[in-house]
Amino acid sequence: LTMPNYNGVWSLSTQYQYNTDWQADNVSPTRVLAAGVVLFAGDNNTSGAIDKITLINTAAATDFGDLSVSGRENGAAVGSSTRAVFAGGSQSDNPGEVIDFVTFASEGNATDFGNLSDGKQDFGSASNNTRGLFMAGTTGSRINVVDYITIASEGNATDFGDCSATKSDLHGCASTTRAVVGGGNTGSRINVIDYFTIGSTGNSTDFGNLTVTRSGVGSASSSTRGVFAGGYDGSTPQVNTIDYITLDSAGNASDFGDLTAQLQPRTSCGSNSIKAVFLMGSNKLDVITLASTGNAADFGGAVMTAASASGVGGASNAHGGIA
C-alpha cells in the first residue's frame, strides 16, 4: 500500500482528509465484506455465473464462481452474514428443486445444499441471519406453500406454512424477526402484503397493501424499513414506483419515489443497512438510500459479467434481516 505523505506541518482537518482519501483508495477485503457484498446468480441462457458487487463502491461486478446447475432463471436467494443460498428456478422451462450455497468470504463454485419440497419458480424469498423462507411460486400451477431452511445447516427445505393465496411473481424482504412479501399474481395481479414471524412456523398474516397492484416487484430492506420497487401491472411500460413500509408495524405502503427506468418483471436485489440496489438488466443497477425517500439514482459502473435480473436472485451478507 502507498501511505500518504505526512511530512511537514498540517492541520487536523488535513490529517482527516489524508486518512479518508487513503482508506477510500485502499479498501481492505475485511472492510468491503463488512460493508456489504451482493451476489447475483444465473440467467435465462446457459450461464450459471455468480457475479459479485460491493456496496462500498461502484466498481464493475467481478466473477465469483458458478452455480451447481447452469441456465437457471426465476429462482430466489437468501443470505446470512456468512452464506448466500440460491434456490429453485427453471431450466428449459422445467421448475427445479435444487438449493446450493456459497460462502461470501471465499470465492468459488456453489456447493449442493439440499432440495426444495417441490421444483418451483417465480417465488418470493426472505431471511434473517438464521432462517431462509421460500414463499409460494409455481410448480406448473401456482401454489401457496412456504418452505424454510436453516442457512448454516445443509439439508432439504421443511414446510413452514402457507401464504394467504396461491400466487407467483412475488418478492420478499425481512427484519430480524419478520419476513414480508408483497404483490404477485393469483391469475390477476394483486397489491397484498403478507408477513411471517421467522422464528416460528405458521401461515401468513395480513400486513397491508402496496400503493400499486403489481407482480414481479423487487424488494430489499434495512432492519426497520422494507421497499418494493418496480414490477408489472399489466400495462406497458412497466411500473417504476418504489413503495416503503415499516417492517415491524403493519399497514399500507407509502410512496418512496421512482426508479430511473421501468424494472423488469422479475429482478434481483440486495441491500445493507444504508442502501439498496436493484439490477435493472445485465448492465445497470439503481440505488436508493433506505432511510430517506426520493427517486433512485444510477449506481455506477456495476456491469454484470454474466448474471442477469431474471436469474436466481440476489443475496446480501448485510441486509435488514441480519442487522
Strand content: 35-45%
The succession of helices and strands, N to C, reads HHEEEEEEEEEEEEEEEEEEEEEEEEE
Shape: globular
Proportion of residues in helical segments: under 10%
- DSSP summary, beta strand count: 25
**Quick check: average pLDDT?**
88
- DSSP helix count? 2
C-alpha end-to-end distance? 31 Å
Low-confidence stretches: 12-25
Structural category: mainly beta
Main sheet summary:
5 strands, antiparallel
- How big is the Rg? 19 Å
Please explain how this structure is put together.
The protein is mainly β and 323 residues long. The protein is built from two helices and 25 strands. The strands form six sheets. Strands 4, 5, 6, 7 and 8 form a five-stranded antiparallel beta sheet that branches. Strands 3-2-1-25 form a four-stranded antiparallel beta sheet. A hairpin with a 3-residue loop joins strand 21 and strand 22. It is globular. Mean pLDDT is 88; it is low at 12-25.
Brief rundown of the structure:
With 323 residues, the chain is mainly beta. It has two helices and 25 strands.
Layout of secondary structure:
Blueprint: H1 12-25, H2 29-35, E1 37-41, E2 49-54, E3 62-66, E4 76-79, E5 83-87, E6 90-91, E7 94-103, E8 106-120, E9 124-127, E10 131-138, E11 142-150, E12 158-162, E13 171-174, E14 178-182, E15 192-197, E16 205-209, E17 218-221, E18 225-229, E19 241-246, E20 254-258, E21 269-271, E22 275-279, E23 285-289, E24 297-298, E25 314-316
Antiparallel strand pairs: 1-2, 1-25, 2-3, 4-5, 5-7, 6-7, 7-8, 9-10, 10-11, 11-12, 13-14, 14-15, 15-16, 17-18, 18-19, 19-20, 21-22, 22-23, 23-24
